[in-house]
Amino acid sequence: MKLLPLEGLIVLEFSQYLSGPSAGLRLADLGARVIKIERPQVGDAGRKLSIKNLWADDSSMLFHTINRNKESFTADLRNPEELEVVKRLIAKADVVTHNFRPGVMKRQGLDYASVQKINPRIVYGEISGYGSTGPWKDKPGQDLLVQSMAGLMYTTGNDGSDPVPFGLSIADSLCGAQLVQGILAGLIRRHKTGQGALIEISLLESLLDFQFELLTTYHNGGSLPRRSSINNGHPLLSAPYGLYATANGYIAIAMCDLSTLATALHCTALDRYTAEHAFVSRDEIKQLISAHLQQHSSQVWLAKLHEHHLWAMEVLDWKKLTAHAGYEHLRMEQTIYAANHQEIRTTRCPIRINGRILTSGKAAPGLGANNEDITQQLLNEN
Question: Is the pTM of this model over 0.85?
Answer without folding.
Answer: yes
